[in-house]
Amino acid sequence: MAMVDEPLYPIAVLIDELKNDDIQLRLNSIRRLSTIARALGEERTRKELIPFLSENSDDDDEVLLAMAGELGVFIPFVGGVEHAHVLLPPLESLCTVEETCVREKAVDSLCKIGSQMRGSDLVDSFVPLVKRLAAGEWFAARVSACGLFHVAYQGCTDVLKTELRSTYSQLCQDDMPMVRRAAATNLGKFAATVESSYLNAEIMTMFDDLTKDEQDSVRLLAVEGCAALGKLLEPQDCVARILPVIVNFSQDKSWRVRYMVANQLYELCEAVGPDCTRTDLVPAYVRLLRDNEAEVRIAAAGKVTKFCQLLNPELSIQHILPCVKELSTDSSQHVRSALASVIMGMAPILGKDSTIEHLLPIFLSLLKDEFPDVRLNIISKLDQVNQVIGIDLLSQSLLPAIVELAEDRHWRVRLAIIEYVPLLASQLGIGFFDDKLGALCMQWLQDKVYSIREAGANNLKRLAEEFGPEWAMQHLVPQVLEMVKNPHYLHRMMALRAISLMAPVMGSEITCSKFLPVVVEASKDRVPNIKFNVAKLLQSLIPIVDQSVVDKTIRQCLVDLSEDPDVDVRYFANQALHSIDGAAVAQS
Amino acid sequence: MNGGDDEDVVAASADQSPPLQWRFSQVFGERSAGEEVQPVDMISAIEFDHSGDHLATGDRGGRVVLFERTDAKHSSGARRDLEETDYPVRHPEFCYKTEFQSHDPAFDYLKSLEIEEKINKIRWCQTANGALYLLSTNDKTIKYWKVQDKKIKKICDINADPSGAVGNGIVANGVPDANNSLLRLPVVTSHESSPVAKCRRVYPHAHDYHINSISVNSDGETFISADDLRINLWNLEISNQSFNIVDVKPEKMEDLSEVITAAEFHPTHCNMLAYSSSKGSIRLIDLRQSALCDSHSKLFEEPDAAGSKSFFTEIIASVSDIKFAKEGRYLLSRDYMTLKLWDINMDSGPVSTFQVHEYLKPKLCDLYENDSIFDKFECCISGNGLRAATGSYSNLFRVFGVSPGSTETATLEASRNPMRRHVPVPSRPSKLGSILGRGSESAGVDGNSNNALDYTTKLLHLAWHPNENSIACAAGNSLYMYCA
Predict the structure, then answer these.
(1) What order of strands is seen across the sheet that includes strand B63-69?
(2) N or C: chain B end with fewer CB closer than 10 Å?
(3) What angle do CA A462, A464, A468 make, to 5 degrees?
(4) Which residues from A are below 8 Å from B271, CB to CB?
(5) A419 φ, ψ (degrees, to nearest 5)
(6) pLDDT for A212-228, tens place per residue?
(7) pLDDT value at position A278?
(8) Do A254 and B150 make contact, defined as CB atoms within 8 angstroms?
(9) B176 CB near a chain A CB, below 8 Å?
């Protein structure tokens, strides 16, 4: 490490502030722990700074969290890997604090350090630490211990390995559900490091215990273990030992466990392989799709496409499709919404004929759903729809839905549909768009809600980009220019906003010939808000138009505005004038 | 402690333990004669922790006071144990540990409502790292507290001179000194320690109505809070979201006929909880069944006693408190006139019913007039499940033997002399719908107590020590403890 080259005084302040009463200052010092360590040098860091930190682990959680994070990358500052063990004591005490996020960070950092430590150091200091934590009096220590076994286990002697396995098995049966939950969460990681000979015997026994735990909260974490362990086991063992567990879980009394199965379904299928998926998991999945708890159906419905990808089309049509039909008329809007967001992905799997025969009716009924979320989810996947059923069929059913959504009474729904208009435009093509949607786009500019007007203006810009300036010149610009004469000043302002957004897309020529005269005219508006928006708009036009236009028209208009009676108008006019001067200086 | 296995004890009804002889043990905050009780000092919640080594009380002023057991917290040396066997009855003794301001008065600006600071309920959570944790709630906001002995720290030996004149030579010469030996780490010296309470989390804005109960789950990570119409499920670590698991709010508030009065988790089954209603029913729900537990898995109701309906029947049926017994098989409930013990495997009716203050029956009209009929008395059950206690007026509370065949009853007054009023209150436990002659005996009660019953001194809050025969109860601002 380099010798001290920073001035010492700031360091001294940093060190003092490690114990300042102000938490912000302490936090600041802890975050710059590496600076302090560099100033102290490796030896003093080992002998003084680290012990100092170990003794002061009753600080505020924020400080402890920062400390736990810093220590994880501290190996270079204590003199490299051979001294890494000095970092363990402070992290060990952080592993026992009550705040979960601090503990998790400390465990993280310990894993980082442990994985770099030399084998002998690991045995001498890391493994004893894990054992101490695992035997801790309070559950916090034991919870932390669960996350460290996978690091400790590697590079251990056989005797120690046996001991670690038996300790872990004790943690799986701890009195405290919190500890058992931690053991269940980390079982997969630990199992990945254990030799396969012990996997079948010992690890699977622990796993079996956890899957039978009386606490729902433990069992539902064991569901994730199914996927993790399944990948480690030989296929036949997996089928013999994991598959029955998954099938059982899918019929668990607790809906939260079934929910986890539905959520993890794809990973579970991967673990057991395609054959078992077809034979055993299809019935399980069908049950989940028909679960009496809506939350479970939501999770299951969201996995329809991924699951069908694992099956062949016949099985999908035979078993899954009937459920999908039921779900499309489910009593819970959230279930229908989840289905709507993925159902289009089924089209390529089923092929065109089956899609038109089976999927299209479902799709159309979802498009007419009474809840806007459901319809929006369908529309957002429009490109996929188009590919499969073609634009004609689509537009017949789609347009009424879109028009309805565009006039929905919830402005967030209107906002969402505006976001999709450019996508729609690209899919439908120019001709189609002109007839049906052009009017809507203009209507949004005069919406009652500002966000919608703003989004509408932005939409015009995106349409101009999509279809090109010429099209915009014909279909958008005249209406926008018309709006500048609107009696309502908010609408006039929105027209100016649209102009400022469209100008860069339309280019210099159209801006000068069409927009600029209108803007200059607007600078004589009687409402100050319009006038200072004109000033802002003119400022934004400066880079677009020629210098001559700036000098001739824009500057004069701004000078007029800078003498306006209203202070805001003068302010923005002057801002714009400054930027003209700035641009001129930059050019010269 | 008595009775390692409750089931056995309860089953062995033949050999009854002799009736307990209650004695005064301690009092905190005793009122001297003629002293006015300040409303803010009135105790509004009492709770022992799971070990019985700590006791918490909450008051109308939003304060939580903790007491610590003094007689049981020494190292369990073998010799000491042997010595103690010479003194068979050692009753628990508590001393003041600390207090803190849990809630402050607040104002809901949206609804123009004052939010009282009064502590409605206190529940202890899992002890960890030598610190105590508890939840306290007022009408709207639940708070999670950590109480820990903190060392008082002194920091010395810092680099910068406090006077700021010379930085200990570091900047004296203006040139950065290359010798880092001048840098010193602060030295922290600590001596005595004192309990410090710190609010770890606040769970706000989840209740439209007044919170009447909180209960911690056996899974150690969740708890519920119940108001008049809804029960919410929280994760202890997440304070900004909760899940609504029970909602009894009808579509139109005019249709409202029943409100939730209390809710409690089963002591061992993390998926089960019970809640009681103002109509006198108790519902057991299973969280595994569905996310929104609108349908109960079991309903416990007193079968309608034909005929005897009056204007007050419905009002006095309202359950004011429910408590699971330690093992979770039995459930105790209190309504205005009675204490009932239920077996959760038997939903046809209560196992037994105990009349708390039968002699008030003729006076229901007066009690209605002065609103006393809406008083919410709490109840508690002993750790071994053999006895239960609940409060009444005139600072009296009653203890009943609840094991089958037991006829034990006791009436105590929350004072230094609990047996002062030795009143033969008519209250043999009456099984299923009490057919007791009441006329003469209840008259005797009134005759015995010279002064008329005092409705203002009511004993609402009390708690039974989890593993000893010791009861803590609140009389106004005073905490009385009795043991047997």
Answers:
(1) B43-48, B54-59, B63-69, B94-101
(2) N
(3) 130
(4) 216, 254
(5) -55, -30
(6) 998 888 998 999 888 88
(7) 86
(8) no
(9) yes
Mean per-residue pLDDT, A485-508:
91
pLDDT > 90 fraction of chain A, expressed in percent and rounded: 46
From residue B205, how far is each of A187, A240, B108 by CA, in Å?
38, 49, 10
SS3 A483: helix
Nearest by Cα to B403 from B352, B449, B447, B348: B352
> H helices then E strands: how many in chain A?
45, 0
Looking at per-residue pLDDT, the higher value among A412 and B234 belongs to: B234
Q: Is B219 on the interface with A (CB under 8 A)?
A: yes
Among B339, B364, B335, which residue's Cα sits nearest to residue B455?
B364
Residues of A in contact with B129 (CB under 8 A): 96-98, 138, 140
Query: Would you tell me how many other CB atoms lie within 10 Å of the CB of residue B107?
Result: 10
More confident residue, A411 or B10: A411
Element holding B201 (H helix, E strand): strand B187-203
Instruction: Please give the angle made by the CA atoms of A418, A421 and A427, to the nearest 5 degrees.
Output: 165
- Identify any residues that bridge with B244 across adjacent strands, giving them in sequence order: B232
- Name residue, tokens 């017994």: B325
Q: How many CA atoms lie within 13 A of B474 on its CB side?
A: 24
* C-alpha dist (Å) from residue B30 to B281, B393, B476, B480: 38, 18, 9, 8
The list of chain B residues with pLDDT below 50 reads 1-15, 73-82, 84-86, 88, 162-178, 424-451
Prediction ipTM score:
0.77
A16-73 confidence digits (pLDDT tens) = 888 888 889 999 999 999 999 998 899 999 998 999 888 877 788 899 999 999 999 9
**DSSP state for residue B236 in the 8-state scheme:** T
- Picking from A442, A414, A455, the residue whose alpha carbon sits closest to that of residue A433 is A442
Report how far residue A360's alpha carbon sits from residue A341's, in angstroms, rounded to the nearest whole number.
Answer: 15
- B293/A contact by beta carbon, under 8 A: no
**The token pair that represents B430 in the structure block:** 């009456």
Non-local (6+) Cβ contacts of A29 within 8 A are: A14, A15, A17, A18, A20, A36
Task: Report yes or no: A56 and B188 within 8 Å, Cβ to Cβ.
Answer: yes
CA distance A297 to A305: 14
Nearest Cα of chain B lies from the Cα of A96 at a distance, in angstroms, of: 7
Comparing C-alpha atoms, which of B203, B186, B54 is closest to residue B131?
Answer: B54
Contacting residues of A for B167, CB less than 8 Å apart: 9, 12
| DSSP, res B303 | P
- Length reported for chain B: 484
Using CA atoms of A170, A176, A180, A186 in order, give the dihedral in degrees to the nearest 10.
-90
CB contact, 8 Å: B373 with chain A? Answer: no
Q: What is the pLDDT of residues A356-381, one digit of tens each?
A: 888 888 888 888 888 888 888 887 77
Q: Which are the contacts of A53, defined by CB distance < 8 A and separation ≥ 6?
A: A67, A71, A90
Rounded to two decimals, what is the model's pTM? 0.80
Question: Using the beta-carbon criterion (under 8 Å), do B185 and A3 form an inter-chain contact?
Answer: no
**A424, two tokens:** 């729609």
- Taking the C-alpha atoms of residue B128 and residue B72, their distance in angstroms, rounded to an integer, is 19
Q: Is B204 on the interface with A (CB under 8 A)?
A: no
According to the model, what pLDDT value does residue B434 have?
37
Chain centroid to Cα B435, Å, comes to 32
Query: Does A3 sit within 8 Å of B167, measured CB to CB?
Result: no
Residues 6+ apart with CB under 8 A from A450: none
Q: Which residue of A has its CA nearest to B271?
A: A216
pLDDT of residue B176: 42
What integer best gives the mean pLDDT of chain A? 88
Q: What is the count of residue pairs from A and B with beta carbons less than 8 Å apart?
A: 111
- When mean pLDDT is compared across A86-95, A104-113, A368-377, B389-398, the lowest value belongs to A368-377
Question: CB A177 to CB B270 under 8 A?
Answer: yes
